[in-house]
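Intended use. Records such as the Tetratricopeptide repeat protein entry shown here are meant for training and evaluating sequence-to-structure methods. They are not intended to support clinical decisions.
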Amino acid sequence: MRRNTMFTAFFSTLLLSAQWVSAEPLAEQYLTSGQLAEGEKALKEQITKSPEDDEARFGLGVVQFFQSFENLGGSLYKYGLRTEGTFRGMPPEVRALLPQNRNPEEISYADVRQILQTWVNDLKQAEKTLSAVKDPDVKLPLHVGLIKVDLIGSGKPVDAAFLMGRIGTPQQKQAAENFVIGFDRGDADWLAGYCNFLCAWGEVMLAVDGQEIFNCTAHLFFEKVDTPYKFLLEGPRNFDALRSFNRPLISDILAFIHLWRFEMKEPERMKAALAHLEDMQLHAKSMWKYYQTETDDDHEWIPNPKQTGVLQIKVTQEMLDTWLAVLDETGLVLQGKKLIPFWRGKPGTQGVNLRRVFTEPRIIDPFLWVQGTAAAPYLEEGPITEFASPQMLGRINSTFGGANFFTMAFWFN
């Protein structure tokens, strides 16, 4: 009788193990092995065979998201991003993971724009894939600490657990190895929202003409630069030369700051950037719709007020309500229905229509924006956003704790 009981327990254990293995998402084996290109191909084939497989579709979106950074890092390595000079102040263990290409290709401004365009295209594809996830019960558990990404094009992808083994304690390394997040439907919106946020910045950088700042300062960041000022490539370019008051290097840095005034090269891209920000806000609203309907508590990335979450940070109903109010107000600002308060002149009389900044783009000059004159074309009379009201600011401060709001906003998307 005892033998039968032991056999039953042993068989049950094997069965549970088999079920766990079979339940492992297809994306995980490619993410944890660093084989993103192979993973993209396999997941696309799986979706072709089973179009309703949203777990595979979610996994494909995650793979494509990480691929966007692999492609970006590989391009920067190809053109000799000056990691040794730029990151000299970092710990040796980190610098060892950022090798500099000893035989880079010469980079031109057209190459920089192509790198940005490829990055935006990759992120758009990931966002499109993630937005196609419809199953409200989809699950994608991943050992995120074991996801390997080749960020520098070295052909040697690394994961967070490896990094902790180099710069952390054994306990931190083990924690990274065991760290699992049970991504669900709301998290698909969360990641899609971040894709839109990054795309918006990429479109803004492609909208402006950065030729002059590239010609005058790209030598600070790349080893070989196609610039009309070849003398800039001579002499020391490492930032640690500032300790000895290197006049040419200081003048290069001042030139970089001085040239932050950008004419429009492709102004229509500013509208594309606005569209991405609007989509980001919609994804942020959608993700909380799904989060609030969850009744489980399974390794949640962002928990609802009844869940715990892997970060062990309590999300209260007050935090959720305040954040949803922030999202609603953000939508009104992006639509131009609420104005940003103007920081010059009589307070409360007029505000900046942020939507028109994107739909009627002009020269971007950060210093004139701080002064206020660059905002003049976009000034209107109308309702000012609640973000400027003492009531909203007090609510945010009491709910999130002042500066903690920005940390929570980064997490909440």
